């Protein structure tokens, strides 16, 4: 599970920015917290609010960029035999120092009973610095797996005996190189964590892929059951193929007055189509205890459905494996203490100087210099601009 994600000099964020999944000392919704190794607690959800252009999506893009930079060399070189082509990381563009400085990502996460710390710093597509450390929670200092500064790579004690070459391409993360070419348990556990971070795609092609994956599996029944729990009256679904690789159509069955009718996917509502893209990967995430990332999860969904999807992660009975959900939202109807802990609510906004900043509701002080209380109307105060990430609606409603 994710403990903390830190990045610096990425797109609209110039300074070090922290998304923390470690809970603050708060009393609300303690039963929703995930229990990790060493009895450490983690948040199951983090939601980011803020105005358009404030930097909400960029936080998720930064995390996705790190994950894809790590795992894509594996897919390209091992599964497809393709050549490595790194995408240039976009630094903060509005001051000369940042434009010529590296972009740095850090992820602290738990995998296989260990706490890992991975740092990757990039400039013009080249790896400037890279570190992978791990430790047993509550047991001494971190152990170094490897450290990299430019072209110099230093192996930790556990890797020195493995006859591992350190002569690699400047654009290749050494972490990825190890996962591709060597069988090192400590590295593989960390790499597997990155491999299983999921990023939601609502496109028809993604839905078609997930449908074919469910062919003949028990997951199909679970998807239908969950849709029915959300009052989506689908009794069955099937697909027809043009050939082995292409789908001709996806058809969903509805029972009306005892009779069954079929609609092609394109005839369903936007909300139903989105749910069909969401549900399979949400179930998979909950079953495996993964991290799931979704930009504007609330779009095209009724607020009650949106709240229900969040509850799948915050309820320990539906989330026994400790899955986590990172999302952005504009839906203020769920911006309430009954839905989220204060440390699960984040705001992204641009400063007067230009760069975006990210901060938690748990860190905001009210006019009496006290923390925002759970009795406060978060949604109302947010729309009034009391939390800084002003959505500008007050100007439209005045």
Can you offer a commentary on this structure?
This protein is α+β, with helices and mostly antiparallel strands and 398 residues long. The protein has two domains: 1-197 and 290-398, Rossmann fold (3-Layer(aba) Sandwich); 201-289, no CATH class. 29% of the residues lie in helices and 27% in strands. The strands form four sheets. A seven-stranded antiparallel β-sheet has the order 2-1-6-7-8-9-10. A six-stranded mixed β-sheet has the order 11-15-16-5-17-18, sandwiched between helices. It has a three-stranded antiparallel β-sheet with strand order 12-13-14, with helices on one face. The model is unreliable at 393-398 (pLDDT under 50).
* Main sheet strand line-up: 2-1-6-7-8-9-10
Proportion of residues in helical segments: 25-40%
Instruction: Name the shape in a single word.
Output: globular
Strand content: 25-35%
The overall number of domains is 2
Main β-sheet: number of strands, strand sense, barrel status?
7 strands, antiparallel
Q: Structural class from helices and strands?
A: alpha+beta
Would you report the number of β strands? 18
The tally of helices reads: 11
Could you tell me the radius of gyration in angstroms?
A: 23 Å
Average the pLDDT over all residues and give the rounded result.
90
């Amino acid at each position: 599970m994710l403990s903390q994600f830190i990045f610096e000099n990425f797109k609209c964020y110039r300074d070090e920015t922290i998304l923390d999944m470690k809970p603050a000392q708060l009393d609300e919704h303690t039963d929703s917290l995930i229990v990790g190794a060493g009895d450490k607690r983690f948040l199951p959800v983090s939601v980011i609010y803020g105005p358009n252009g404030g930097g909400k999506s960029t936080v998720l893009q930064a995390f996705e960029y790190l994950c894809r930079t790590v795992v894509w060399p594996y897919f390209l070189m091992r599964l497809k035999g393709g050549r490595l082509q790194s995408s240039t990381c976009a630094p903060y563009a509005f001051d000369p120092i940042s434009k010529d400085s590296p972009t740095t990502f850090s992820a602290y996460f738990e995998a296989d009973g260990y706490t890992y710390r991975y740092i990757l710093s990039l400039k013009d597509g080249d790896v400037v610095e890279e570190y992978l450390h791990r430790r047993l929670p509550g047991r001494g200092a971190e152990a170094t797996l490897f450290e990299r500064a430019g072209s110099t790579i230093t192996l930790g004690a556990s890797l020195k005996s493995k006859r591992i070459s350190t002569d690699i391409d400047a654009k290749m993360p050494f972490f990825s190189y190890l996962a591709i070419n060597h069988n090192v348990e400590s590295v593989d556990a960390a790499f597997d964590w990155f491999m299983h971070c999921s990023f939601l795609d609502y496109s028809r092609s993604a839905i078609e892929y997930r449908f074919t994956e469910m062919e003949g599996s028990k997951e199909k029944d679970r998807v239908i059951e969950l849709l029915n729990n959300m009052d989506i009256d689908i009794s069955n679904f099937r697909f027809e193929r043009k050939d082995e690789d292409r789908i001709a159509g996806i058809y969903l069955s509805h029972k009306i007055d005892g009779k069954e009718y079929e609609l092609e996917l394109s005839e369903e509502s936007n909300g139903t189509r989105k749910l069909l893209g969401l549900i399979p990967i949400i179930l998979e995430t909950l079953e495996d205890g993964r991290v799931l990332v979704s930009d504007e999860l609330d779009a095209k969904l009724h607020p009650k459905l949106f709240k229900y999807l969040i509850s799948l992660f915050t309820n320990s009975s539906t989330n026994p494996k400790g899955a986590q959900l990172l999302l952005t939202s504009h839906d203020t109807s769920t911006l309430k203490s009954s839905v989220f802990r204060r440390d699960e609510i984040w705001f992204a906004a641009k400063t007067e100087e230009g760069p975006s900043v990210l901060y938690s509701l748990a860190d905001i002080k009210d006019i009496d210099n006290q923390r925002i209380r759970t009795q406060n109307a978060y949604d109302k105060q947010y729309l009034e601009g009391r939390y800084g990430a002003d959505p500008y609606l007050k100007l439209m409603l005045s």
